[in-house]
Design a protein that fits this description.
This protein is mostly helical. It has one domain: Hemerythrin-like (Four Helix Bundle (Hemerythrin (Met), subunit A)). Helices cover about 75% and strands about 0% of the residues. It is built from four helices and no strands. The longest helix is centred in the middle third of the chain and has 28 residues. It starts with 17 loop residues before the first helix and ends with a helix. The model has no long low-confidence stretch (mean pLDDT about 85).
């Protein structure tokens, strides 16, 4: 199987809110743990342990983030929530692909994860952070 590249945190991903930035870094680290498990061809059990950690972390992060942004009256919250739902649905789809051993989909899926997370941070989360700075 083709090796998958880990996501490297870059300062340009920072939204200027240390609490949220720390959460995003942990999110990236958890995705990278999954990448390492695939690249190292770890056991099915090991992979799913990390996968479930990612899914659990994503859901908790999204709930916290949505609550934080709602408390601060950030704009586009409903659209932001829909983006989170789409991400979770993608995780579920990937789990099915993994179970079906559709390894050819893995690089594409991880590219999607990387693109989604970076775009989400730089659009929705940055917009909300800008709102917080000016409120």
């Amino acid at each position: 199987m083709e090796k998958i590249e880990a996501i490297e945190w870059k300062e340009e991903y920072s939204i200027g809110t240390p609490y949220i930035d720390a959460k995003h870094k942990k999110f990236i680290n958890t995705i990278n743990m999954l990448v390492d498990a695939l690249n190292n061809e770890e056991s099915h059990e090991s992979f799913f342990s990390i996968y479930h950690r990612l899914a659990f972390y994503a859901e908790n992060h999204f709930v916290e983030e949505e609550r934080f942004f709602a408390q601060n009256n950030c704009p586009n919250l409903e659209e932001h929530r829909k983006s989170h739902i789409n991400f979770v649905q993608s995780l579920i789809k990937f789990q099915k692909q993994y179970e079906e051993k559709r390894e050819e989909m893995f690089p594409e899926f991880f590219q999607y994860l990387k693109n989604w997370l970076i775009n989400h941070i730089q659009s929705y989360d940055r917009c909300a952070a800008e709102h917080l700075k000016h409120s």
